[in-house]
């Protein structure tokens, strides 16, 4: 009788369909024809008639496919696995090294008096570089359209909306953010005046207001009267009701600065 070549998981074994034939355990077969390892086709054939086998087959197929896809589409998977076995100090050093070698254009800025060299994407916005790469989060992201003034910083002494400016446009420039106004524990006169006149409510727009106010007081072309100050500050808008206090703080700071 010709042997039925099937895998032991075949449903016919379970149903006794091969009773009376020579089994795989017979000495003659084992000595001359050792059993072959089950193939994928055999697994698939067995899975068709055995629901539990089908579930096991699909589960193993899905796991192997996922592993293959991960290896093909995630080039950093191996590096991530290696990082998981590193100590915290080794992982931090590897991350720092990866940051230095990351793709991007070189950019050098003088930020609040400190020289900073980094790499940025060609389309990186100055606001995002200050907040995300240099961690200077005092400069706020508001409308992202240059209308609210929350992102105001000074570049070479001139107030600009950092959300509208590409970082690479300012290579070699001097940038001052709200973090750079105070001198140690001594507040800038405008900062002190805003505090004393309660010129803010939630405070989200305050850093932009202060940066614009400092620029207004430094610009001799802007009149000293309230109307001129209001006009000069019109690029900083907020929904709060502190405009009257902001104006009072600016005029107070003017007198403190001898302007």
From TrEMBL:
Record PROSITE patterns: 2FE2S_FER_1, 2FE2S_FER_2, TAT
Sequence ranges assigned to domain 2Fe-2S ferredoxin-type in this UniProt record: 105-181
Top-level taxonomic group: Bacteria
InterPro entries assigned to the protein according to its UniProt record, in alphabetical order: 2Fe-2S-bd, 2Fe-2S-bd_dom_sf, 2Fe-2S_ferredoxin-like_sf, 2Fe-2S_ferredoxin-type, 2Fe2S_fd_BS, Aldehyde_Oxdr_Iron-Sulfur, Beta-grasp_dom_sf, TAT_signal
Biased composition (Low complexity): 23-47
UniProt keyword annotations, A-Z: 2Fe-2S, Iron, Iron-sulfur, Metal-binding, Oxidoreductase
Coiled-coil ranges (or none): none
Region (Disordered): 1-50, 77-99
A Pfam match: Fer2
Official protein name in the record: Xanthine dehydrogenase
């Amino acid at each position: 009788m010709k042997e039925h070549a099937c895998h032991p998981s075949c449903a016919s074994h379970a149903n006794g369909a091969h009773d009376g034939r020579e089994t795989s355990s017979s000495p003659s077969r084992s000595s001359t024809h050792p059993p072959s390892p089950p193939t994928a086709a055999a697994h698939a054939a067995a899975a068709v008639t055995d629901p539990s086998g089908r579930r096991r087959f699909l589960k193993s197929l899905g796991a192997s496919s996922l592993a293959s896809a991960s290896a093909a589409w995630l080039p950093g998977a191996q590096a991530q696995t290696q990082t998981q076995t590193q100590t915290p100090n080794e992982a931090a050093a590897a991350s720092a090294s990866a940051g230095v070698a990351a793709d991007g254009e070189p950019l050098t800025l003088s930020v609040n008096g400190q020289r900073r060299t980094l790499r940025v994407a060609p389309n990186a916005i100055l606001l995002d570089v200050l907040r995300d790469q240099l961690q200077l989060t005092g400069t706020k992201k508001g409308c992202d359209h240059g209308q609210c003034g929350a992102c105001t910083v000074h570049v070479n002494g001139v107030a600009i909306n950092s959300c509208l400016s590409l970082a690479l446009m300012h290579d070699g420039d001097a940038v001052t953010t709200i973090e750079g106004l105070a001198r140690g524990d001594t507040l800038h006169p405008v900062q002190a005046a805003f505090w004393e006149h309660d010129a803010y409510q939630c405070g989200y727009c305050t850093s932009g207001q202060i940066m614009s106010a400092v620029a207004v007081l430094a610009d001799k072309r802007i009149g000293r009267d309230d109307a001129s100050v209001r006009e000069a500050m019109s690029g900083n808008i907020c929904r709060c009701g502190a405009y009257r206090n902001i104006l009072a703080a600016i005029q107070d700071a003017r007198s403190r600065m001898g302007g």
